Structures are given as structure tokens and as C-alpha cells.
Amino acid sequence: MTDFSAIRSSYVEAAYSKTVQGETRGPKAAGPAPKDFSQMVGDAASQAVESVRSGDQMAIKGLTGQGSLQEVVQATMAMEQTVQVSVALRDKLVEAYQEVMRMPV
């Protein structure tokens, strides 16, 4: 087996220093920076609110005769699924919180 210091090259050291400094590396890291959990939850909540709002707007268009029946049904079903997922997520978060509160310190 060879010694690690013998196979270390200037290219490897440069790549290592870039990753240590937090710079992007390779084609995989070319996208946006990863979000933390609170940002993901906030984005999901804002998308859910937007879905419900668009469903409400489409329902109003359907009632006034400006939207087709198919569009109204699709928007209503998307809105219903969003509400169901949001309620299930809320229930899981409350359940997890209760479990944490039951843990002995």
C-alpha cells in the first residue's frame, strides 16, 4: 500500500481546499445551495397556501361561468389534496412534539 501523502497531488489539494472553504465543486453542486429545514417547511407552507388560493379563484370563476367544469374540478381536487397533506403533516408534527415532551430529562 502506498502512503497517502505520496498520492496527494496539487489537484487533489486544490479540490480539497475548495470543499473546505465551501466553494462549489463539480456539476452536482452547480445548483442552488441546500436549504435548511425551516426554509423547506416555510416554502411548502407558502406553496400550500398558493394552491388553496388558486383553487378558490378557480371555484369563483366556475360559479361566475368564466371557467370550465373540468378546470374547476381539477383545481378543487388539487386544493383538497393540499389540505389533506397539510393536515396529515400537522398531525405528525404534533405527535412528534408530544413524543419529545414525554421523554425523561
TrEMBL record:
Location relative to the cell: Bacterial flagellum basal body
Q: Which domain of life is it from?
A: Bacteria
Q: Which GO terms describe its cellular component?
A: bacterial-type flagellum basal body
Q: What GO molecular functions are on record for this protein?
A: cytoskeletal motor activity; structural molecule activity
> Does the record bear Kinase in its keywords?
no
Q: What is its main location?
A: other
Where does the UniProt annotation place the signal sequence? none
Record-linked InterPro entries:
FliE
Q: Keywords in alphabetical order, please.
A: Bacterial flagellum, Cell projection, Cilium, Flagellum
**What does the record list as GO biological process?**
bacterial-type flagellum-dependent cell motility
* PANTHER family in UniProt: FLAGELLAR HOOK-BASAL BODY COMPLEX PROTEIN FLIE, PTHR34653
Q: What family classification does the UniProt entry report for this protein?
A: Belongs to the FliE family.
> What protein am I looking at?
Flagellar hook-basal body complex protein FliE
Organism listed in the record: Sulfitobacter litoralis
